[in-house]
C-alpha cells in the first residue's frame, strides 16, 4: 500500500481495491481529511468516467448530502457501479443501462419524485411502527440461532454466514411478504447484486444481471398472487400506491421491492456482525455492555459509527460549484465517504477508538442527513438492539474461533466470515 506519509496524494486512487484488503484504508482517509479534503482520483478504462472527487470531512459530507439541488442522486446514480464496471464487462444482453434501472428507485432520484415515492412507505418505517415488529424480530433471531446450531451441533458457527445473512433477510422478507423459506434466495440476490467487486461472490457482471432478472420474476409472482387478495405487507402497499394519481409501473414496483430488500439486508448484517466482532475483540468494551454501563441503543449507535455499512454514496454536480474552495465542474462525480466522516476528529473525540459508552454520537452511518437519510434507520436500530440482547442472553461466552475474512469491496464495508464458538 502506498500510503506512507510523504506519498503524493495525487497518486492515490481510493477506488484501488488493494487499499481495502484489511477494510477501509483509514490512514489514507486521515491524510486526505488533513491535507486534501476534496480529492480527485483519476480513472482509466471507463469511457464515461474520467474520475471522481472524494469528500472526506464530516462537515462537507453533511453539506453535500443536504444540497440535493447541486448534488444530484439521479443524474449519475448513487453507486459507482458505472465507474467500477468497465464498459467491456457489461454483457450484450444486459436488460438496459444500469442507470436506467437505478433511477426507478428513490435512492437514485431527486425531489420532487423522490419525496413522493418515499412518503409512500415512510409510515411503515417510523421508529414507532418499527416497534410493532419487535416480537417478530426476537423470534427470528432465536430461530436463526437454533437453525445454525442444528447445522453445527458442536457450536462452531459463522456469525456472518450462519446468522448474519439470515436475520435481516427474514425481517425485511416478512415485511415484504416473502415466505421465510425463501430467505436463502433473498440473501443470494442481495449478494449477487451488491458484491460485484468480489470475484468469490460475483463471477462476472452477467451474474448480477441474472440475479436482477430472477428478482423481477419473483416479485411479479408475489404481485400476481396479491392481484386477487391483498395482504398486510409492503408488496400489497406498492401495488396500490399512487404517485400524482398514477400507479407505479411494473418496473418501479420491482425496483422498489429490490431496493428495500437489498438496503434492509446487506447493511444491517454488515453493521451488526462487524460491531459484535469489535466487542469480541475488546473484553473491556464487552464488559461495559454486559454490565449495562452502556445501554443497548448506545452500543448499536457505536456499531453504526465505527462500521458504517456503506463506505460511500455518490452524487453528480448539476452545475459548476465548489466544495471547501475546490472547484467542481457540472457533471463531476462526488463520493461522500461516510467511513471517513465517522472518523473525523472535528466531529468525534478519539474517533478511532471503538467506544460503546459514547454519549454524543451524531454519526453519518445512516447518511449525511438531508433527503436521502436512511429510510430504515428506525427498523435497523431496533433490529440490532434485539439481536444484541438475544446474542448476549443466549451466548454470553461466545468466542472468536479463527481469523475473520473480509469481503472485497470499496462500497460494502463488511466481513465475509467471522468464525465463532458458542
Ligand atoms: C445498519 C443498517 C443500515 C445502514 C447502515 C444503512 C445506511 C444507509 C445510508 C448510508 C443511506 C443513505 C443513502 C444516500 O446517502 O444516498 C441509506 C438509505 C436508505 N436505506 Fe438504509 N441503512 C440501513 C438499514 C436499512 C434498512 C433496514 C432499510 C429497510 C428497508 C433501509 C432502507 C433504506 C432506503 C430505502 C434508503 C434510501 C433512502 C432515500 O434515498 O431517501 N436501510 N441507508
Task: Report on this structure.
With 422 residues, the chain is an alpha+beta fold. The chain is built from 17 helices and 14 strands. The protein has a single domain (9-421), classed as Orthogonal Bundle (Cytochrome p450). α10 (183-194) crosses α11 (205-228). The longest helix has 32 residues, at 250-281. The model has no long low-confidence stretch (mean pLDDT 91). Protoporphyrin IX containing FE is lined by residues 73, 78, 106-107, 118, 172, 259-260, 263-264, 267-268, 271, 304, 308-310, 313, 338, 365-367, 371-372, 374-376, 379-380. Protoporphyrin IX containing FE (HEM) binds next to α13 and α17.
CATH class bucket: Mainly Alpha
Tertiary shape: globular
Task: Please compute the radius of gyration using only Cα atoms.
Answer: 21 Å
Distance between the termini: 36 Å
Biggest sheet character: 5 strands, mixed
CATH homologous superfamily caption: Cytochrome P450
Number of strands: 14
Mean pLDDT across all amino acids: 91
CATH topology label: Cytochrome p450
What is this structure, in a nutshell?
With about 425 residues, this protein is α+β, with helices and mostly antiparallel strands.
Topology:
Elements: H1 26-35, E1 38-42, E2 51-55, H2 58-66, E3 71-72, H3 81-84, H4 98-102, H5 113-122, H6 127-131, H7 134-151, E4 156-158, H8 159-164, H9 166-176, H10 183-194, H11 205-228, H12 234-240, E5 242-243, E6 246-247, H13 250-281, H14 283-290, H15 296-306, E7 312-317, E8 321-323, E9 326-328, E10 333-337, H16 338-341, H17 377-394, E11 399-400, E12 405-406, E13 415-417, E14 419-421
Parallel strand pairs: 2-10
Antiparallel strand pairs: 1-2, 3-7, 4-14, 5-6, 7-10, 8-9, 11-14, 12-13
Helix pairs in contact: 7-9, 7-17, 9-10, 9-13, 10-11, 10-13, 11-13, 13-14, 13-15, 13-17, 15-17
Bound molecules: protoporphyrin IX containing FE.
The site of protoporphyrin IX containing FE has 29 residues, from helix 13 and helix 17.
Amino acid at each position: 500500500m502506498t500510503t506512507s506519509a510523504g506519498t503524493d496524494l495525487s497518486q492515490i486512487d481510493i477506488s484501488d481495491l488493494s487499499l481495502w484488503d484489511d477494510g477501509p484504508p483509514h490512514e489514507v482517509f486521515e491524510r486526505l481529511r488533513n491535507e486534501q479534503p476534496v480529492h480527485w482520483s483519476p480513472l482509466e478504462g471507463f469511457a464515461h468516467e474520467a474520475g471522481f472527487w472524494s469528500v472526506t470531512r464530516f462537515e462537507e459530507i453533511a453539506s453535500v448530502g443536504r444540497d440535493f439541488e447541486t448534488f444530484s442522486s439521479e443524474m449519475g446514480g448513487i453507486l459507482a457501479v458505472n465507474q467500477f464496471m468497465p464498459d467491456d464487462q457489461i454483457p450484450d444482453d444486459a436488460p438496459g443501462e444500469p442507470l436506467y434501472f437505478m433511477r426507478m428507485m428513490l435512492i437514485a432520484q431527486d425531489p420532487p419524485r423522490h419525496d413522493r415515492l418515499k412518503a409512500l412507505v415512510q409510515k411503515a418505517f417510523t421508529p414507532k411502527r418499527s416497534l410493532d415488529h419487535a416480537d417478530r424480530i426476537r423470534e427470528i433471531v432465536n430461530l436463526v440461532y437454533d437453525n445454525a446450531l442444528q447445522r453445527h451441533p458442536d457450536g462452531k458457527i459463522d456469525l456472518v454466514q450462519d446468522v448474519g445473512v439470515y436475520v435481516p433477510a427474514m425481517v425485511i422478507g416478512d415485511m415484504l411478504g416473502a415466505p421465510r423459506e425463501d430467505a436463502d434466495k433473498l440473501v443470494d440476490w442481495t449478494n449477487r447484486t451488491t458484491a460485484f467487486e468480489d470475484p468469490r461472490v460475483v463471477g462476472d457482471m452477467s451474474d448480477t444481471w441474472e440475479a436482477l432478472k430472477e428478482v423481477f420474476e419473483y416479485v411479479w409472482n408475489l404481485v400476481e398472487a396479491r392481484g386477487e387478495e391483498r395482504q398486510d405487507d409492503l408488496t400489497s402497499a406498492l401495488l396500490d400506491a399512487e404517485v400524482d394519481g398514477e400507479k407505479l409501473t411494473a418496473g418501479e414496483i420491482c425496483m422498489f421491492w429490490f431496493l428495500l430488500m437489498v438496503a434492509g439486508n446487506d447493511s444491517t448484517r454488515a453493521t451488526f456482525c462487524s460491531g459484535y466482532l469489535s466487542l469480541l475483540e475488546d473484553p473491556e468494551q464487552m464488559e461495559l455492555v454486559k454490565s449495562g454501563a452502556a445501554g443497548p441503543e448506545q452500543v448499536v449507535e457505536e456499531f453504526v459509527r465505527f462500521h458504517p455499512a456503506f463506505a460511500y454514496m455518490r452524487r453528480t454536480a448539476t452545475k459548476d460549484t465548489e466544495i471547501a474552495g475546490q472547484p467542481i465542474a457540472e457533471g463531476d462525480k462526488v463520493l461522500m465517504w461516510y467511513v471517513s466522516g465517522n472518523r473525523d476528529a472535528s466531529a468525534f473525540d478519539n474517533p478511532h477508538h471503538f467506544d460503546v459508552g459514547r454519549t454524543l454520537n451524531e454519526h453519518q452511518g445512516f447518511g449525511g442527513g438531508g433527503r436521502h437519510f436512511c429510510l430504515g434507520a428506525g427498523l435497523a436500530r431496533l433490529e440490532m438492539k434485539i439481536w444484541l440482547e438475544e446474542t448476549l442472553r443466549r451466548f454470553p461466552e461466545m468466542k472468536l474461533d479463527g481469523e475473520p475474512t473480509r469481503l472485497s469491496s470499496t462500497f460494502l464495508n463488511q466481513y465475509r466470515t467471522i468464525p465463532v464458538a458458542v
